[in-house]
Amino acid sequence: MSDMVHLRLDGVTRVYPSATQGRAPLHALGPISLTLKQGEFFSVVGPSGCGKSTLLDVVAGLAAPSDGSVTFEEKQIAGAVPDGVGVVFQEDASFPWLSVYDNAAFALRRAGVPEQEVRDRVEPTLAFMGLTSFAGAYPAQLSGGMRQRLCIARTLVTRPRLLLLDEPFGALDQQTRLLMGDELLNLWRETGATILLITHSLDEASMLSDRIGVMSARPGVFIDVVETGWPRERDSRIVSEAAFGQLTGRLWASLRDQSIKALAMAS
Amino acid sequence: MTRAGWIRLALIAGALALLEAACRFGFISRDAIIPPTVMVQGAWHALRSDETRGDLFLTLQTVGLALVLSLVAGAAIGALLHKAPRLRRVLDPLLASYYAVPTFVFYPLFIVLFGLNRWPLVAIGFLFAVVAVAINTLDGLSRIPRAYLRTAAVMRLSRSQMLIHVILPAAAPWFFTGAKFAVAYSFIGVIAGEFVVSGAGIGHAIAFAYNSFDNRMMYGLIVLLFVVVGGINTLLWSWERRLYARLAGR
Asked: Which of A2, A50, A207, B228 has its CA 20 to 30 A from that of A263?
């Protein structure tokens, strides 16, 4: 991880105008201020409905902030997805009408990358994600975990410098999540990309991250930012360490009241 | 062929054999129904006649025109309603009750509008089919997972790239269902129109044979129509199976 600031959020808020006349606008997020260093793995945890995914949308350029600014590589993101940003969503976004290979090559082909270069990028990425033998298969023939790996592969071939992950393992079982976490850590070390992970899993955040931002109930603001202190070379075996339990416990201590508040708001 | 396919074939063959026997042994009057083998002979006889081939070509041409127009207009209407949710809310009840409207009552109006030619029949076939296409297109567009569109946005696809490479393939199964309905409805609209009010086409030829007590010709033409429509449906069905098999990963 370098000391260079890769992503900066300054007083970012997001307010949704009311869909019904006479009702107040919905203040979903912020103000949020945050800086991510190049190559950092930062996770965001928070109660349901606190604006985690809204934060990701704003950083990705899929939604414009109502106030404040987002700067990526010293250029302001202004409501459009900037070059060098890749996003993996929680939902299965693999295209069922395309084979695994064609899915992985999709973004490159649309960008007009020559076919030889597409091959040179897709084949090693599929190999890295353990999908080579499924290159000719269709997404419906893959398990949920493999489909999510395919979505990650499709993003990786574009060589993103900032990878935004919105609960990408949310639909998977615990064992698969741990193994996918290992793969994600390998990928992070291999590519040197900066990663912003949105997750509702305290274990996932504790295992994967350099730092973890804990968000309040809506409107989501950071109430705590925790440094994990893990070495760069780490994997899912750290879940058995005492420090892991302490870290998860600290996160829950920060989150418990906020989660109760969020539940009360939802009911 | 699958086991179900063989059973289906055996059932149809059995029913035809039963009908053949019933007609041959006088259980059913030949004035009402002729044996299936005679129907097939009638179909072959009809197919060899220039006049029938002309009628068939005319009908197919009319159906084809109604079908193409309904596919284009139906897809456009579906897309427009998808883009305009308020308009959709206004039109939803009308679309839902559309097929309760007896479209044939507009035939005199179409004659006034288009003249005494094939266009009133094209209009009838079009009216029968267009709403099925529009409803299914609308359904397909509404069911595209949001994650696909967000993924396309992240990949910075242009509007045309998004339409061609994401929206159309994602909505294809529903559009295809609409197209299948459109084929059936276009045939029903045009043939029924020819039967009742036209002076040419297969529908008219069937009506003429019926009025002339020419059972062999009438049933022959009906068999011919079954073969043509069945052939088109079989083609669409096998295409659809391939499409769904790919989506289902089989």
From this structure: A207
> At B248, is the pLDDT very low, low, confident or very high (cuts 50, 70, 90)?
low
Assess whether A197 and A113 both reside in one domain.
no
Of A108, A134, A159, the one marking the end of a domain is: A159
Residue A113, chain B, CB below 8 Å: the answer is no
A140 in the same domain as A64: no
Contact B145 A91 (CB under 8 A): yes
How many domains does chain B contain in total?
2
CATH number at residue B159: 1.10.3720.10
CA distance A102 to chain B (A): 12
Q: Does A72 lie in the same domain as A51? A: yes
Owner of token pair 């079009």: B126
Q: Which of A85, A107, A138 sits opposite B246 (nearest CB)?
A: A138
* pLDDT tens, position by position, A176-188: 788 888 888 988 9
Asked if residue A108 belongs to a domain, the reply is yes
**Cα radius of gyration (chain A):** 19
Higher-confidence residue of A92 and A30: namely: A92
Check if the beta carbon of residue A37 is closer than 8 Å to that of residue A193.
no
In whole angstroms, what is the distance from residue A154 CA to residue A104 CA? 4
